Amino acid sequence: MVIIMNRTELRAFLKRSTNSGGVSPIILDTITKCARASQTVIIAYADTKGVITAREVEPYEFKEDKLWAYCLVRQGVRQFTFGSIVSAMPTGRVFTPRWPIQI
Can you tell me the distance from the alpha carbon of 54 to that of 40, in angstroms, rounded to the nearest whole number? Predict the structure, then answer.
């Protein structure tokens, strides 16, 4: 499912669902637990146009204000800015880490 919001709606949504425009503590906790259990997580994130996309990823590292993960859709390493992640859902699928998880 794709949800389209304009920038104003997106900013208002992110402000309501996060602290100080960053990532929600619930989202951060979900990603952290999945990483520590070597489980994939489905994240939904918004681009600058407000289009929300879901990706199943292997979470590896938090660096500055980004999640570094291996995206199973794109078959490569991707970075996701915390402020653009709008949800995270554990899949329960275990993965074999491609490199050390640093979360």
Answer: 13
Element (H, E) at 26: helix 25-36
Mean pLDDT of residues grouped by 10 in the chain (103 residues)?
A: 55 52 82 97 89 95 94 95 92 97 94
In angstroms, the Cα distances linking 88 to 8, 35, 49 are: 22, 12, 20
Give the per-residue pLDDT at 1.
41
- Domains, the chain, ordered by start: 7-94 (2.30.30.520)
In this structure, how many other beta carbons lie within 10 angstroms of the beta carbon of residue 27?
22
**pLDDT for res 24:** 83
What amino acid occupies position 87?
S
pTM of full prediction above 0.85: no
Distance CA 56, CA 71 (A): 6
Contact predicate 67/85, CB 8 Å: yes
- From CA 35, how far away is CA 46, in angstroms rounded? 22
